[in-house]
Amino acid sequence: MLTHQAAFVDHLIRTVEDESVDLVVIAGDVYDRALPPVDAVALADDAFARLAASRARVVVTSGNHDSALRLGFNARLADAAGFHLRTAMNRIAKPVVLVDDHGPVAVYGIPYLDPDVARAAWELPTRSHQAALTAAMDLVRADLAARPPETRSVVLAHAFVLGGAASDSERDIAVGGVSAVATGVFDGVDYVALGHLHGRQTLTPSVRYSGSPLAYSFSEADHLKGSWLVDLGAGGEIDARFIEAPVLRRLARIAGELADLLADPRHRDAEDAWVQATLTDAVRPAQAMARLQERFPYAVALHFAPPLAAGARRRAEAEGRSDHQIALDFVADVRGEPANAVESLLLRDACEACARDPEADVVVGA
Asked: How far is CA 353 from CA 116, 131, 182, 329, in A?
């Protein structure tokens, strides 16, 4: 996906210039794992350097996929370049302050907060995401209250906020406590930019998810990807519109018997898409993925959903047969040819080993 991710970075830089953007906020995740591959790090480095050289200030927080320590490396040095990494709990109440024609704007970054870590650090009475984010927002509101009354506020937070719809590519953040938080946690600030959920969502006019820049699972096939462009008025009024991101290759989900999928002209649009195919053949076709890819070269996911009658028939056929015979039938069905004599003996030994009770009493007699 690196080529597609790079295209989004190009689009983002163009949008910053074309729309005269003053502030870019990224509410995590930056990476998809704590130890990202080197080519992903190189792309992020290029994106960060280009954003730092743009007309906009940038604030980035870490998500649950990121390593906060690694992403936040050299955060104080990056501040000098107008690129602000907010990955540490002790910097939540230290906003990045911008000034526009209407006055100051305080931007607070709340990284993903592990409930166990937050509870220990802040001596919280409960262990949940709601408690951790409430404590973080209390710090934000306390700092904001000490600033001039005309100061407007923006908060970045990485969390599962009630009202948002999840997709298959998001990692569960239910770590020993309630995983979702209420929108009321963010009361008292003008705009909240949320990260974690992959679909764009407007929970309230001032609380929004932009979603991921690309689709990362087929559950996101119908998502419109992009970014929110928000104008913050003199009194904190919100005027937001969605800027669509380029789609280099869309996602398509197709279903049917293999022969029909290979011949049906209705699926022509899926020939240059990432494809998830669900085969409904009663008998699993041999070399199904290879045959699919002859027409759909970007087919990457294959599911089997035979008719219920076929499944019931297979269960009926298995009744009264030995485990060894069922295993032999499986090999023949998947491979297209039966197991040889040596393989049959290995399968028999394996079935017998699984059935053997190692704790059973053994009686040896004449």
From this structure: 43, 50, 53, 19
Read off the pLDDT of residues 62-97 as tens digits, 9 standing for 90 and up.
999 999 999 999 999 999 889 999 999 999 999 999
- The sheet that has 251-256: what strands, in order across it? 251-256, 274-279, 299-304
Each residue of 94-108: b (16+ CB within 10 Å) or e?
Answer: ebbebeeeeeebbbb
Q: Which residue from 99, 358, 83, 351 is spatially nearest to 232, judged by alpha carbons? A: 99
CA 178 to each of CA 49, 162, 173: distance values in angstroms, whole numbers, following the listed order: 37, 11, 9
Query: What single-letter DSSP state applies at residue 234?
Result: T
* Model pLDDT, residue 331: 87
Separation of alpha carbons 328 and 334, rounded Å: 10
Q: How far is CA 359 from CA 144, 152, 257, 314, 351, in A?
A: 67, 70, 48, 33, 17
Asked if residue 8 lies in contact with residue 245, where contact means CB atoms within 8 angstroms, the answer is: yes
Phi-psi map region of 153: left, alpha, beta (phi>0 left; psi -120 to 50 alpha): beta
Helix (H) or strand (E) holding 227: strand 226-232
Rounded alpha-carbon distances, angstroms, from residue 10 to 4, 13, 16: 10, 5, 10
Q: Could you give all domains of the chain from N- to C-terminal order, each with its CATH number?
A: 2-244 (3.60.21.10), 250-319 (3.30.160), 320-366 (no CATH)
pLDDT in tens, 160-197: 998 766 666 656 555 444 578 999 999 999 999 999 99
* pTM for this predicted structure: 0.80
Take residue 167 and report the two structure tokens written for it. Answer: 């997709």
- Of 301, 282, 283, whose CA–CA distance to 293 is shortest? 301
d(CA 276, CA 351): 34
- Residue 224 tokens read as 């419109």
CA distance 208 to 239: 12
Query: Which of 137, 116, 122, 130 has the alpha carbon at shortest distance from 161?
Result: 130
Task: Tell me the residue length of the chain.
Answer: 366
With b for 16 or more beta-carbon neighbours within 10 A and e for fewer, the 169-192 pattern comes to ebeebeeebebbbebebbeebbbb
